[in-house]
Specification:
transmembrane helix, Transmembrane channel-like protein, single chain, membrane, 22 helices, transmembrane, three-stranded antiparallel sheet, 3 domains, 678 residues, mechanosensitive monoatomic ion channel activity
Length: 678
C-alpha cells in the first residue's frame, strides 16, 4: 500500500528503477526496531526544550510542562540550580529586551507611520534613524580621540603639555598660514556669511583640520600621538560604517531572499502567522491591521503586474522596449549635462578666486556657485527621473531601484567632479607654484581646511534645500489642491511621498559626511543634528501634505537596496580619502601632518619606533610575499562558502519538494480512506 503513495512513485522515477522496492522501514525486524528507537529519541530530544517552543497544541504543552516539572524532582541539587538559573537569566534578558524597545529612538512614531502608510515608507524612517545613530557614534569617536585630547592639552588639564616638532627641510613660504578670522569691528551679516560658508571665525575653530596643529600631547607621563590618532580614528569610522552596513544588509538580504524564493509561503505567513496576539491596545491593533493590509496590497499589486507582463503581445513588448531605450537616452543626456555643468562651474569659480574681485558680493556668489549648481542639479534631476520612470511600466520595487541608481550618478558623481576640480587646482599647477611645497601653497596654504569648507557648504546647502522645499513647494501645493477647484491644479493633485528621492537625499548627505569628516572632524555632529531635524520635517510633510502611495512598496526589498546604495556611497568616499591621505602632499602650514610628506607617512614612522622583531613582522605583512598567499586563502574560503551556499540551496529545494509530496500523500490517503468507508 505504501508503494502506491505519490512520494514513493516519485522517488522510484528519480532513481530510474523499474523494480518495486519496499521502504527500509518495512524490511527486517532490526530496521523496524532502529526506526522505533530513532523515533523515541526524536521525541525525547524536544522534551528538553521549553514547552512554548514545541509545535504542539495548548493541551499537549500543558501535559509536557507538567511532565518536565515532575522530572525536575528527581534531579540533583546542582542540576536543579543550573536549570533555575538558566530560566531566571532568560527571563531577565527578555525583560531587558522589552524595556530596551521603549528606549529605542522614535519607536512609537515609526510604528504609527507603518500603520498609516505601510512598511515601505516606514523603512525610510528606520533608515533615517540608523543614520542618526551612525553619525552620533562617529562624532563620539572623532571627539574622543582627536578633539578632546587637543582641548585637554590646550587648557592644561590633567597636567598635560603640548609637544611641537619643528619642520625639517621645508621652506619658510610653505609654513605661512593666516586664517581669515574676523578681527576688530565686524558687522553682524559677516557672522552669518561665515556661518554658512565655514570661513571667518569658524575657520579658526576645532571644526576644521587646520585647527589641530600639535604633534603630541603629554598627559602625565603618557605621550599621545595626535597625528596617528587622527589617522586611525579616520580608518575606524570608515570601518565601523562598513561593518554596520554589511551587518544590516545581510539581515535585509536574508529577508529578501526568503520572500523572493516562495511568494506563496510569504502570503501564508502573513495570513496565518502575521498577527501579533500579544497586542492588547486597540490603537496598536489598528496599526498592525493596517500594516498587514498594506503588505497584502503590495503582494497583490506585484502579482497583478507580473500577470499583465506575461500577457503582453509582441507589439506591446516592442513598444515598451522602444520607449525604455528612448527614455534611457534622455537620462544619459541629462547626466552628461549635469557633469559638464559642474566641471565648468567649478573651474570658473577657482579661476575667479585666483584672480580676485573687488566686489565682495560677487566674490560671495562665485564662491557659492559650485554648491548652488550641484544643489540645483540634485533637485531637478530626481524630479525628471521620477517623472520619466512612470512611462517605463516597471514594478514598484524596481522603480525605486532604477530611480535610485540614476539619481546616484547625479548626486555622488557631482561630489567626485567637485573634488577632482579642487585637486587639479591643488596639485596640477605650474612648476613655480608647486615646486617648494609640492602643492599650490599660494592659493591653498591649508588645502585640507579648504576642502572641509566645501564639504561643509554642501551639507549646509543641502539642509537648507530640504527645509525650503516643504515650506515653499509642498505646503502651498497642499493648500491649492484643497481650496482651489482649477482643473490644472487638480490634475497635479496631492503629492505622494517619493521614497527614492528622500532616500537619496540622506545618502548624498551621508557621503558628504564620510568624505568631509577627515577634513572637518566635527562634521558628524552637524550631520546628526541635521538628520534629527529632517526626521520631524519629513514626518510633518508625510502626515499633512502627502497622500498614501497609489502603488505601495514592500519594506523587505527596499531596506536591502537602501543599504546597498549607501554602501556605494561609502565605497565612493574611500576613493577621495585614499587619494588625499596617500597621494596629495599634506599642508606644511597647518594640521597634525605638517611634518610628513603625506598623511600616510605617520604609519611607517610610528612602526620604526617599535622593536625590530615587531617591525619585521609588520613590514612582512605589508609585502607581496604575504599578500599573495593571503589573497589565495581568502579566495579558497570564498569558494568554499559559495559551494556551501549552493549545497544548502539544493537541500532547501529538496525539502520543499518533500513538503509537496507529503501533501500529495495526505490527499492520497484521504481518498483511500473515503473509498474504504464507502
Amino acid at each position: 500500500f505504501l508503494q502506491e503513495l505519490p512520494s514513493c512513485q516519485s522517488a522510484r522515477r528519480r532513481r530510474g528503477g523499474t523494480q518495486e522496492r519496499r521502504p527500509a522501514l518495512l524490511g527486517t525486524a532490526g530496521s523496524r526496531g532502529a526506526a522505533a528507537r530513532a523515533l523515541q529519541q526524536e521525541r525525547a530530544e524536544p522534551a528538553a526544550c521549553p514547552a512554548r517552543e514545541q509545535p504542539l497544541s495548548m493541551a499537549e504543552k500543558r501535559i509536557l510542562r507538567d511532565s518536565q516539572q515532575a522530572d525536575t524532582e528527581h534531579l540533583s541539587r546542582w542540576k536543579k540550580w543550573r536549570r533555575t538559573s538558566s530560566k531566571s537569566w532568560k527571563k531577565a534578558l527578555s525583560e531587558v529586551k522589552g524595556l530596551s524597545s521603549y528606549l529605542m529612538l522614535w519607536q512609537h512614531d515609526i510604528h504609527s507611520i507603518e500603520g498609516k502608510f505601510g512598511t515601505g515608507i516606514q523603512s525610510y524612517f528606520s533608515f533615517l534613524r540608523f543614520l542618526v545613530l551612525l553619525n552620533f557614534i562617529i562624532f563620539i569617536l572623532m571627539f574622543s580621540f582627536v578633539t578632546l585630547p587637543f582641548i585637554i592639552s590646550k587648557y592644561g588639564i590633567f597636567n598635560s603639555t603640548i609637544a611641537y616638532v619643528s619642520p625639517k627641510n621645508i621652506e619658510d613660504n610653505c609654513t605661512i598660514y593666516e586664517p581669515s578670522g574676523n578681527k576688530g569691528l565686524v558687522y553682524f551679516y559677516t557672522y552669518l556669511k561665515d556661518l554658512f560658508s565655514g570661513t571667518g571665525f569658524l575657520e579658526v575653530t576645532s571644526l576644521f583640520y587646520g585647527y589641530y596643529t600639535i604633534d603630541a600631547v603629554w598627559i602625565s607621563i603618557v605621550r599621545y600621538n595626535l597625528p596617528l590618532a587622527y589617522l586611525l580614528a579616520t580608518f575606524a569610522y570608515l570601518a565601523l560604517s562598513f561593518l554596520w552596513i554589511i551587518k544590516r544588509s545581510v539581515k535585509g538580504f536574508m529577508q529578501n531572499l526568503v520572500h523572493d524564493a516562495d511568494p506563496f509561503q510569504s502570503y501564508c505567513n502573513k495570513v496565518f502567522a502575521g498577527w501579533d496576539f500579544c497586542i492588547t491596545d486597540p490603537n496598536a491593533a489598528w496599526l498592525k491591521h493596517r500594516s498587514l493590509q498594506y503588505e497584502l496590497q503590495t503582494d497583490l499589486q506585484e502579482e497583478k503586474l507580473k500577470q499583465k507582463r506575461a500577457e503582453r503581445t509582441m507589439k506591446e513588448k516592442l513598444r515598451i522596449y522602444s520607449l525604455r531605450i528612448f527614455i534611457n537616452i534622455i537620462v544619459l543626456a541629462i547626466l552628461s549635462g549635469c557633469f559638464y555643468s559642474i566641471f565648468t562651474v567649478t573651474v570658473f569659480s577657482q579661476n575667479s578666486n585666483d584672480t580676485g574681485n573687488a566686489n565682495s558680493l560677487v566674490n560671495l556668489v562665485v564662491q557659492y556657485l559650485p554648491s548652488m549648481v550641484i544643489t540645483l542639479a540634485n533637485f531637478i534631476g530626481p524630479l525628471i527621473f521620477s517623472f520619466l520612470i512612470r512611462f517605463e511600466d516597471y514594478t514598484p520595487a524596481f522603480e525605486i531601484r532604477l530611480t535610485l541608481m540614476r539619481c546616484v550618478f547625479v548626486r555622488l558623481a557631482n561630489i567626485g567632479v567637485l573634488l577632482f576640480s579642487l585637486w587639479s587646482q591643488i596639485s596640477n599647477c605650474g612648476t613655480d607654484k608647486c615646486k617648494p611645497c609640492g602643492y599650490n601653497y599660494k592659493l591653498y596654504p591649508c588645502w585640507e581646511s579648504d576642502v572641509g569648507q566645501e564639504m561643509y557648504k554642501l551639507m549646509i546647502f543641502d539642509f537648507l534645500v530640504i527645509l525650503a522645499v516643504p515650506l515653499f513647494v509642498d505646503f502651498p501645493r497642499k493648500l491649492l489642491v484643497t481650496h482651489c477647484s482649477c482643473k490644472l491644479i487638480q490634475w497635479f493633485g496631492q503629492q505622494e511621498f517619493g521614497i527614492s528621492d528622500n532616500v537619496l537625499e540622506i545618502i548624498y548627505g551621508q557621503t558628504i559626511c564620510w568624505i568631509g569628516t577627515f577634513f572637518s572632524p566635527l562634521l558628524p555632529a552637524i550631520a546628526t543634528i541635521k538628520y534629527f531635524i529632517i526626521f520631524y520635517v519629513k514626518k510633518i510633510i508625510l502626515i499633512h501634505t502627502c497622500k498614501p502611495a497609489a502603488r505601495p512598496i514592500r519594506a523587505s526589498g527596499s531596506n536591502f537596496f537602501f543599504l546597498v546604495v549607501l554602501l556605494i556611497g561609502l565605497i565612493l568616499a574611500f576613493v577621495p580619502l585614499g587619494v588625499s591621505i596617500a597621494r596629495i602632499p599634506s599642508s606644511k602650514a597647518c594640521g597634525p601632518f605638517r611634518n610628513f610628506n603625506t598623511s600616510w607617512e605617520v604609519v611607517p614612522d610610528t612602526i620604526l619606533e617599535f622593536p625590530t622583531v615587531v617591525q619585521q613582522i609588520l613590514f612582512g605583512m605589508a609585502s607581496e610575499a604575504f599578500a599573495v598567499p593571503f589573497f589565495m586563502i581568502i579566495c579558497i574560503i570564498m569558494f568554499y562558502f559559495i559551494a556551501l551556499a549552493r549545497a544548502h540551496k539544493r537541500v532547501v529545494e529538496q525539502l520543499r519538494e518533500q513538503l509537496v509530496l507529503e501533501s500529495r500523500d495526505k490527499m492520497f490517503l484521504i481518498r483511500k480512506i473515503t473509498e474504504a468507508q464507502r
